[in-house]
Specification:
The chain has 549 residues and is an alpha/beta fold. The protein contains 20 helices and 16 strands.
């Protein structure tokens, strides 16, 4: 059960909750999320101590960081910033909730990162947005989401002080929004070949949360009144207490539909014709005595007894006001997938699930949250291996004694259409060609790899090579045309040049295309479509045989 985004590489530079929540959702859904932490760790690692949990237990951090890998980098140092850039050079997604000013100082702002990897989807959560007087102002969700966006006020009863939000409410909402935006941007990249910046803010997330109220005010100039339970104009949309104190909520939004079953449930069918309550206007005008009478009636039975009564009225909608203990004991909560088992060594830990399921590509957590820097060595070893050229058998290099066709055995032909999106960027004039596992790269892959950071967004495609064959005395020699795409703000194909690849026996165009495929395979792994390090031999050819087109 790998999940819908298996194979997507995410680099996260997140702190506290919002950024890690977005990365945590993607990790749940199958992405390989590499979490960059400073030497002191993500400050979210302190939540356990703040809550008074036993040493080493940190439930909020576990929720948002399971299934991730942790690497410690001191981004104040040039060397570790270089490692971060290298991680980002072939990443699909970058997730961060650092303030824009801090990202700018580190050189990790969108423009700087995109210049090194144009296919990167850059996901950013801010407190108040990217522009405006408070763009770089520090914010937690209590400030930007809960307080400034109006939620606290709208939930405050007249004369009371504002209520406190629960931990991470705005952060998790913003994290889910960013995860969705990232997935949409990845889908757009399939069409364009280009990544993009996607953003949300805690402030805007809060405003959207109360957009029922906000849009009403924008379109009418009038706010929706803050309701009082004792005087709610629609008694079918109110909460009541059963005998014993258990509260429940009646949710009859359509008053004409839900008023009759309420009358029958409480044993007062005559209210349907009572002039005080017969229509919505009358019920609103007499709300105070009506709610008081309902309070007295509901207090006569336990909630369990009322539940049986309510079950006899299909159009009576209601819900208990649950404690967390009630939620965990609720059979329906478990049936709805609210709990997932997170592997932790030889055991599993039950945790809250992120709230989306994929029935064709189901997901499951892969591990508990990592220890600080737990995967530093592992991730650095992967980077080192990526820099090292593949180990290949020794084959004589090309020279005066030309190789024959027997030196190029076709081991695994696959017809591939290189369309508008590849592993590296948008490619114009896409062509059909064949990729083969052959010995051709053995005699050119002899040098050390070219650091991908210095040559970002490379897309190499054989392009219109056959048009040059006659110019070069084909079939004695073969001109291989390479187009290299580098993307900035627009998609432009730069043809860096052409190679002469000596090969006898290329008796027809089909064999020429085969040879063309050999050269392309040097740069593209046919299975992963990841770039193979460009050896010094190829760099030399680029510098000496490159012809301006």
């Amino acid at each position: 059960m790998a999940g819908p985004v298996e194979g997507i590489k995410v680099v996260e530079l997140g702190v506290w909750v919002a950024g890690p929540a977005a990365g945590g959702i993607l990790a749940d859904w199958g992405a390989d999320v590499i979490k960059i932490e400073p030497p002191a760790g993500d400050p979210g690692r302190m939540f356990g101590r703040m809550l008074g949990c036993d040493l080493g237990v940190n439930p909020p951090f576990e929720m948002d960081n399971r299934s991730k890998r942790s690497i410690v980098l001191d981004l104040a140092t040039e060397a570790d910033r270089g490692t971060a850039f290298e991680l980002l050079s072939d990443a699909d997604v970058f997730v961060t909730n650092l303030r824009p000013g801090a990202l700018q100082r580190l050189g990790l702002d969108f423009e700087s990162v995109a210049a090194r990897n144009s296919r990167l989807v850059y996901g950013l959560i801010t407190g108040y947005g990217q522009t405006g007087p408070d763009a770089d102002r520090a914010a937690y969700d209590v400030a930007a989401f809960w307080s400034r966006a109006g939620l606290a006020h709208l939930l405050t009863r007249p004369g009371d002080t504002p209520p406190f939000q629960r931990g991470g409410m705005g952060d998790h909402s913003a994290g889910m929004t960013l995860a969705a935006a990232i997935c949409a941007a990845l889908l757009a990249r399939e069409r364009t070949g280009i990544g993009q910046l996607v953003t949300t803010s805690l402030y805007r997330q809060g405003a959207y949360t109360v957009s029922f109220d906000l849009n009403t005010y924008l379109l009418t100039g009038q706010p929706i009144a803050i309701g009082q339970r004792e005087s709610m104009g629609n008694p079918c949309m109110n909460n009541y207490a059963a005998g014993g104190g258990r509260r429940f909520w009646i949710v009859g939004l359509d008053a004409e539909r839900h008023w009759p079953p309420l009358c029958r449930a409480v044993g007062h069918p005559e209210w349907l014709t009572d002039p005080r309550f017969a229509d919505a206007r009358g019920r609103a005008a007499n709300a105070v005595p009506l709610v008081a009478e309902l309070d007295e009636i509901f207090a006569t039975r336990s909630l369990e007894e009322w539940a049986e009564v309510f079950a006899g009225e299909p159009d009576f909608f209601w819900s208990p006001v649950n404690t967390l203990e009630d939620v965990v004991a609720d059979e329906q909560f478990h049936a709805a997938g609210g709990i997932v088992d997170v592997p932790d060594g030889e055991s599993v830990i039950p945790m809250a699930a992120t709230p989306a399921d994929f029935h064709g590509t189901p997901w499951a957590p892969r591990s508990a949250a990592p220890e600080l820097g737990q995967h530093t060595g592992e991730v650095l070893a992967e980077l080192k291996a990526r820099r090292r050229p593949a180990s290949l058998p020794t084959v004589p290099p090309p020279g005066p004694d030309r190789l024959t066709s027997s030196d190029f055995p076709v081991l695994w032909p696959v017809l591939t259409r290189w369309a508008d999106n590849d592993m590296f960027g948008h490619l114009n004039n896409a062509v059909y060609y064949q990729l083969f596992d052959t010995a051709i790269n053995a005699w050119i892959n002899t040098g050390t790899g070219l650091d991908p950071i210095t040559m970002p967004s490379l897309g190499i495609v054989a392009e219109s090579g056959c048009r040059y064959f006659s110019e070069l005395g084909f079939p004695e020699s073969l001109l291989v045309g390479l187009a290299v795409t580098r993307l900035g703000n627009s998609s432009v194909t730069y043809r860096l040049g052409v190679f002469r690849a000596a090969r006898e026996g290329a008796a027809d165009e089909g064999q020429a295309i085969t040879a063309l495929g050999h050269w392309v395979h040097v740069y593209v792994d046919r299975t992963s479509r990841k770039p193979v390090p460009i050896p010094d031999a190829i760099r030399s050819l680029l510098s000496t045989a490159c012809v301006s087109q």
